Amino acid sequence: MNLIELQNVSRSFSGKKLLNDVSFSVEKGSITTLEGINGSGKTLILKAILGLIKVSGNITVNRKRVLVSGRYPVQAGVLIEKPSLLNEFSAFKNLQLITDLLESSDDDMIKELLIQFDLPIDKKTKVKKFSLGMKQKLGIAQAMIGGCELIVLDEPTNALDEESIAKLIVTIRQMREAGSTFIITSHDREFIEAIATRRIGVRDGATYEVA
Ligand SMILES: Nc1ncnc2c1ncn2[C@@H]1O[C@H](COP(=O)(O)OP(=O)(O)OP(=O)(O)O)[C@@H](O)[C@H]1O
């Protein structure tokens, strides 16, 4: 069963086709990866799927049409470009703000995820003291904490060391087992090969299947 369907999705800017007739579907419970060179259109596809930009064509999530002005059809955990963190708060508090919003407050789950990503679990260390990689891991944790039906990660391995990438792979697999569907962009071939259940290539705003 498909969670997401894109049909003939296009977007132009100043006469240039940034997305060119993109059609593919994302199966429920899959880990779909998007790969391609800088500027090929990977992030725009994620933004289109999330209803963050206007496109022509049709996008449905859970069989409901995605509209920029509408309510998003499912709960989604998202990391696109840079993580949005509150620097004056701890990692714990940053995650708690999200679970409160999702009405799924579970402090044990927050602790578990922080431990899994080797991040401080205390409520005193402020995020402003974190390294780049620690901030990136907290951004990923923000997208994952609610165990949402859809989890979208844009270049999650950026700034991560090998050990952190290995832990990320384990966490993604666990969450997939628990029912989440993932769409992930990455330049990291080893990472893609380790996690993808389906690989989609992006070139000049168009998509193709990667064998
Ligand atoms: N808001 C915008 N207005 C105009 N052009 C845009 C906008 N956002 C992105 N683009 C252009 O669309 C193209 C695709 O951008 P996108 O961010 O999707 O690339 P990407 O594949 O994610 O690249 P990277 O690997 O560098 O993250 C690029 O040529 C970019 O300059």
UniProtKB/TrEMBL annotation:
<dbReference type="InterPro" id="IPR003439">
    <property type="entry name" value="ABC_transporter-like_ATP-bd"/>
</dbReference>
<dbReference type="GO" id="GO:0005524">
    <property type="term" value="F:ATP binding"/>
</dbReference>
<dbReference type="Pfam" id="PF00005">
    <property type="entry name" value="ABC_tran"/>
</dbReference>
<dbReference type="InterPro" id="IPR027417">
    <property type="entry name" value="P-loop_NTPase"/>
</dbReference>
<keyword id="KW-0547">Nucleotide-binding</keyword>
<feature type="domain" description="ABC transporter">
    <location>
        <begin position="4"/>
        <end position="210"/>
    </location>
</feature>
<dbReference type="InterPro" id="IPR017871">
    <property type="entry name" value="ABC_transporter-like_CS"/>
</dbReference>
<dbReference type="InterPro" id="IPR051782">
    <property type="entry name" value="ABC_Transporter_VariousFunc"/>
</dbReference>
<keyword id="KW-0813">Transport</keyword>
<dbReference type="InterPro" id="IPR003593">
    <property type="entry name" value="AAA+_ATPase"/>
</dbReference>
<protein>
    <submittedName>
        <fullName>ATP-binding cassette domain-containing protein</fullName>
    </submittedName>
</protein>
<keyword id="KW-0067">ATP-binding</keyword>
